[in-house]
Amino acid sequence: MRAIVVHGAKDLRIEEAETQILGAGQVEIKMATGGICGSDLHYYNHGGIGETIRLKQPMVLGHEVSGYISALGDGVSNLAVGDLVAVSPSRPCFSCQYCQKGQHNHCESMRFYGSAMPFPHIQGAFREVLVAEAWQCVKADNLSPGEAAMAEPLAVCLHATRRAGEMIGKRVLVTGSGPIGTLCVLAARAAGATEIVVTDLTDEALAYAQKIGADRTVNMIKEPDVMKQYQAGKGYFDVLFECSGAAPALAAGVAAMRPRGVVLQLGLGGDMNVPMQMLTAKELDLRGSFRFHEEFAVGIKMMQQGQINVKPLISHTFSLDQAIDAFEIASDRTKAMKAQISFS
Fold first, then answer.
1. Which domains are present in the chain?
2. N or C end: fewer C-beta atoms under 10 angstroms in the chain?
3. DSSP structural state of residue 321
């Protein structure tokens, strides 16, 4: 079978890979769709994420995937050949102290597809055939493969929304209108937020936020003074989803927060300067949000029930042979929101 393998910055190859052996409790999946994530782009464009997570060996990329069950291992009874499934890339050990507490996203031995954090690296899921544990798979009946592949980034945003707490009637600010920022708009709205404002530096990205129902979008380059109205009177917003990973966005967002609001940091752009004095004076709660666990299946259910519609965010679909073109387009925020690869 073929797989998408990164060897270094701007060195992406479609290579032959060994077929994995199907074991008990596992399923074989003919991959249908894979979404290109920001971490995939970091490996492709820079050979790693920041200074500490670097490629030390070739690695199959990809963790936002869906496919059709093609074979069942012994003991698998809840899935059938032909089922469309979304595959969770999160494979905790279920035995460490954090897994025992139900904090599976903090597993000490996490095996997350397409990650260079450990060595040897955890190989990813951008391959024509994948063998996965049956418990990783969630049936995606009545969804398209592209929608099913959006379950992973949606789960990230659902987890962040849970971390934020009560959302009914809240005023929400989202800084950064990439895939995570726009999905946070959908997640916050579904949780009851009544007003959502999104900021970014490009009109093209903000257009997607408008398309999915943001109440207002602000281009911080063209309209740098707009946020002043939200900063008056000790602030306006109850919740901030900081999705850009940029210190200026965090600072502007914190200035627009009302006292005792909640700041959710999702963006992973490296270490940032934090406006600690303003956080202290406003008694703001600063909360990190990292990955997900049970929210993966919840996201599938919400899409199936029509509570969340991710289809407007899928901007491009490429064939496997066009993988390099897909990564180039996905790297251009003026052209793409979510670029996906079709494996079939």
1. 2-150+310-342 (3.90.180.10), 155-288 (3.40.50.720)
2. C
3. G
